[in-house]
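Worked example (supplementary).
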Amino acid sequence: MAVAERILTASATLADAHYDEAESLAPEQLTECQLACAQRRFSTLRGQVGVLDRLAASSGVRSVDNVADLARLLLPHTVFKSYPLHWIDDGRFDLMTRWIQGLTSLDLSAIDCTGLETIDDWISYIDLHSELRVIHTFGTSGKLSFIPRSRSEWRTGGRLVGACLRDWHGRGSGRDLIRHHLPLICPSYRLGAGAIQRGVSSAVELFAGGDDNCLFLYPQTRFSADVASLAGRLRTADLRGDPDSVVLTPSLRARRAEAVARERTRERDTAEFLEQVMRRYMHEDIYLLSVWPVLYDWATAARKLGSRGAFGRGSILHTGGGTKGRQFPPGWRQQIFDFLGVDRHYEFYAMSELIAGAPCCSVGNYHIPPATLPILLDSRTGAVLPRTGRARGRFAAFDLLAECSWGGVISGDEVTLAGWDDTCQCGRRGTYVEPDIRRFSAAEGGVDKISCSAANDAYERAVGFLAGSAESIL
Amino acid sequence: MKPDVWRVPLIVRGKIIEECTLEFPGAGRECRFLTPDASAHVERLAARPADMADLIGLRAVDVFDYLDGLSERLVIQRNPHMQHAYEMARHNSMLSDDMLREMYAKLPLLFRRDFVQHRTATLLGGDQLDRWVEPPRFPLARTCATMRAFGARTLHIVAGNTPVIGPITVLNNAITRGDAIIKSPSNDPLTTAAVARTMIEMAPSHPLTRHVTVAYWKGGDARVEHELYDPRRIEKIVAWGGLGSIRHVTGHLQPGIELITLDPKIGVAIIDASSLKDTAALLRVAAGLALDIGSMNQEACFNTRLVYVVGGGVPDDIALATRLAELTFENLQALPPALSTPHREFDPELKAELDALRLLDLGHEVIGGRHNEGALIVSHCRKPVDFAHRLACRVANVVPVRTLCEAQTALNNSVQTLCVYPESLKERLRDSAALHAVQRLVSVGGAMIDPFLATPQDGMELLRRMCKWTVEERPAGARASST
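After joint prediction of all chains, the assembly is encoded as:
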């Protein structure tokens, strides 16, 4: 099948292709194919996805013939958290279900969520009774976004990651994990509905062949949406001087206590987990999924013991998430690679709203995958920026892989997008995002714009200030 | 005429420094300005205690004379510095040209003798700044005292959402006979410098001129702040704008520096729905709310952001609140440009929140908010929107509630101005509002602060706090030294 055809039909076939196949297309050809796919999705999902209907009606767009049309059909990232927060306190998960129905074509009308008390229960209940596999985010203010995704979309996303791991450093140069499984090691939670836990679930199935071939720090424990939300809401309420305003049911209190207790012993548990991993998999090839700070702590501990090259040369390191505000000495990454015995790692620029992540190249740029049509918007006006050269603005995209929801989204990130007319120094063709990515909420307010009115940035900055001092529980 | 980059001089106690070497972004789109490197002058920014001696000889009448003279020179038509500041504000402020023109035109009145006299008498009282004053003695006291107020060496971190805040700081510093280092904000770096320049032209060696320093440096610049935020150099810090401005201060705070914060504030309205059944009243309240929400483009602290409509037993109170919101929106759109205009830089995150409510929401209704015209959001779910802290750019949230108690949950320290309708409700509310730290109750339509009304600000007597109150004691019966 020709690459153009694969892109047009998106999901099923893109993941089966060579990962670099779309590089043979010029950017404008690629956009052309992607637009055709967007038009197909548009005609299929209209009438099925409530927000798309309203968006199309208010923008007057009847078909997607060009990027300008598509740009008028982008969902603001706020739409994924447009429910009233008090529904969660009030246990109105029947209304939450009606709300999320507006975002997806999957039929949830038969699901009765009355009587449920927590977000975790709500998500689990939907998991059990439908094809929907909702993701939640970790909003610092405590209000989580919920993004619809189907079971089959998760599978497609997983297969695409497999193709990327295999082909990223050259066609077939990496292991084909889907055919040749590896033990999956993850110093984190096995369960939960955060994007990471959902992604890990796909990896367990596709890359490790099941839970028997995996080691998790918390194999039975769920990364709780309620605890994530509560942490943020307590921070916010505390900031307002009104901590009593957050409703704490006994079950919520218990979940929070467990999380706090786990956090307290986490450092020790992570060190012990490393020992366990070393006992079982020393010098064997593994597929390791972890954030940088844990890896750094491991490498530091191992260096004291003189341990190097712990795992097989064919091991795969899949990481990301930054340093979580920690400061590491120069050469810290090499220390990690020396300890693990790997010289390559895979890192992605990813967001919950998009199925495919953008892999990082040796230069440090994140290459937009063919499954994603990028649109750069002016940071202030929201106008579509030209698809040439290199520019900075708000990142928006159309996700070709989204089948049960509308794939056009505007992110909360400000990025520099390049690669329309020249190639990245790594040699790859196509668009890429440079490493200077930042959240708009963090960038806001500029420098020294001081106001005696409390709207806007004062509050945001205050929440950010408190959040910065709180420990991440990822 | 708009230069590519605006030039902002550094004013150090009567000297104008114009070697602009550093460039900074302003608040407005594409607005940038050049200014001298304050760190190169950091040694001279602060006054030494002995430098304050020239202020002791000043009497109130000298201050009034000086400020009255300044008032005449600040008239924008004949003052190129103020014209320049106004031009920059047109490109840097979130207020429209009409509003700015009005404000710069009124600015001189704040310095006029009659008003300054009134402000001093009302907010400070007595003549403790002029001489040592003997307070009444209680018979059991074995000690007599005399006291006098002195100006303090104060760093002012001022807000720039309106161009009045810097000039008012100059005024307050003159009235209290203090030494002011005014750190300008990036959203208004030039107005205060223009006032200080005018002072230098009028009376270059006058003590009131020589005790004003106006500088811009990037908040957190350790080269300046490490030197300056030191109890040997300053006695007080007056910080507007909450965390954004005091974040850098807190790292340097230590005993010996008094921190006075003028926190970010908001306005809230509480309306009794039963009083709206009369159509004339409904129209009146809508017109008033439009003013309270929209004046100064909702850039000010007093502006109403949340409107609670207390239903009590009123049938169909949500429909009534919606009607009120619609009428308020219509009035908002009809406000004259000197008071309010569509926002020139509508907050894109707020726009995204409004769009999201319109696309997918079961609990709210959005009136307006298509572009930058402003909006009224009605909470059918009877709770404020979760993004209430973002309400700005002429967007307010009407929340129908059943009881007054529910409305009162919104009252706390961050509420400066509470608009109330009808009047009878104001008296019922004022004590409990005060307990919840609300600072000001007004009638609907009266949220905008009258600059010529001399009252405490944000629950605080700022002028009295800006002074140092020194006491001289002696045994009862001993002769007082000459006062």
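Two points are worth noting when inspecting this output. Chain A touches chain B through 53 residues (CB under 8 Å). The longest helix of chain A spans residues 27-45.
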